[in-house]
From TrEMBL:
Lineage: Bacteria, Pseudomonadati, Pseudomonadota, Betaproteobacteria, Neisseriales
PROSITE patterns for the chain: AA_TRANSFER_CLASS_1
Enzyme class of the recorded protein, top EC level: transferase
Protein name: Aminotransferase
Domain Aminotransferase class I/classII large: 32-392
Cofactor list: pyridoxal 5'-phosphate
Length: 400
């Protein structure tokens, strides 16, 4: 009998990975697919960061590290939070994990019990509800549609909080919508949270540096310092420094929580990869030009994508303020039929038909908890993006 853990058995595998599996299958069959599914920058890790990793290997930094991370990196992380986010924590108030994803997993696994609720604004990053599920707790999904620019309002937050609420998860800039919360918007949410002292806040700031139009990034513990004692501010090197494969994420927050996460991590991975920690140290303390250069590239791509998508009949998209995703409504394509005879009833049908008939891969909004939309990642060179949009345009014109 193949009996699984009950929480794992009812969790879903990642929806983005499922689409990527379909892409791999079509490619193996010889199709030339342009994939707009990727959740990672298309750039290489900067040279000085790679060099630091090679030095780490050659200098013998190849052993177990302290569970919460090497001191130099934790000091650099405390500096980063001070410098960029106005958060004044000691290096002891930080933790390094194997990716931002493990920060989230550790935090939720360390604190959630059966019956606890986690407020997850939708559309959400696919992993939040699944991690909550794996921890045996309950996600409370709060729909945040285009009328509120895909953002949680204080009214919606008040309505979602119950005595069982343990966490609120915030993510700005957002995956999948690119929405960015302003200082005022965070302050309004903070006011609700101040009135509900039993709620912890997980601020997922992984896209912090991918923010456009000269907007400023804010994180909620900075906007409302009285929330510092119950906010876990999470970040990492994956998106900012094109280091997704290095698996380094980090956080700052209340010491009791960090200690619990460290205890869990001590029985799980024993800590993040020593070599990657040295690479992340170089990323945080070295030149920051890469961040500014890639931001400009992404902003140019965003402008092109938004225009091309809005020129496509059946699609419409607002201008995302950050990350590298456009979240386009495909409502105008529903009810139509493709040349191959498929009736498009849902956004999943649209995404599947785009893959099968236009050779372009995108992820349906329903995977992120809001339909009918398509998440279109533009972490790809301009030519490929243009070709993909043209293929989507031809597909749209061919619908009956
Ligand atoms: N948070 C969000 C919103 C993400 O989109 C991702 C990656 O896709 C992560 C966290 C995790 O990033 P990593 O585990 O690579 O640090």
């Amino acid at each position: 009998e193949q009996r699984l853990n009950i929480h794992l058995a009812s969790a879903k595998s990642s929806a983005t990975y499922r689409v990527m599996d379909r892409v791999a299958a079509r490619r193996a069959a010889g199709a030339k697919i342009i994939s707009l599914c990727a959740g990672e920058p298309d750039f290489d890790t900067p040279t000085h960061i790679r060099a630091a990793a090679i030095s780490a290997i050659n200098n013998g930094h190849t052993r177990y590290t302290q569970v919460a991370g090497i001191r130099a990196l934790r000091e650099a992380i405390a500096d980063k939070f001070r410098r960029e986010n106005g958060l004044d924590f000691d290096w002891q108030d930080t933790i390094v994990c194997s990716g931002g994803k493990q920060v989230i997993f550790n935090a939720l696994a360390a604190t959630l019990n059966q019956g606890d609720e986690v407020i997850v604004p939708a559309p959400y990053w696919v992993s939040y509800p699944e991690i909550v599920q794996l921890c045996g707790a309950q996600s409370v999904i709060v729909p945040c549609g285009s009328e509120t620019s895909f953002k949680l309002t204080p009214q919606a937050l008040v309505a979602a909080i119950t005595p069982r609420t343990r966490w609120l998860i915030l993510n700005s800039p957002s995956n999948p919508t690119g929405a960015v919360y302003s200082h005022e918007e965070l302050a309004a949410l903070a006011e609700v949270l101040l009135a509900n002292p039993h709620v912890l806040v997980l601020s997922d700031d992984i896209y912090e540096h991918l923010i456009f139009d000269d907007a400023r990034f804010y994180t909620i513990a900075q906007v409302e310092p009285r929330l510092e004692e119950r906010t876990l501010t999470m970040n990492g090197v994956s998106k900012a420094y094109a280091m997704t494969g290095w698996r380094i994420g980090f956080a700052t927050g209340p010491r009791w929580l960090l200690e619990a996460m460290e205890k869990l991590q001590g029985q799980q991975t024993s800590g993040a990869c020593s070599i990657s920690q040295h690479a992340a140290l170089a990323a945080l303390t070295g030149p920051q030009d890469f961040i500014h250069e890639t931001r400009a590239v992404f902003e140019g791509r965003r402008n092109m994508m938004v225009q091309m998508l809005n020129d496509t009949p059946g699609l419409s998209c607002t201008v995302p303020g950050g990350a590298f995703y456009a979240f386009a409504s495909c409502e105008g394509m529903l009810g139509r039929t493709t040349p191959a005879g498929t009736l498009l009833a849902t956004d999943e049908d649209v995404a599947n038909a785009l893959l099968d008939e236009a050779n372009v891969a995108v992820v349906p909004g329903s995977a992120f908890g809001l339909a009918p939309y398509l998440r279109i990642a533009y972490a790809l060179d301009n030519d490929s993006l243009k070709q993909a949009c043209e293929a989507i345009g031809r597909f749209s014109h061919s619908l009956r």
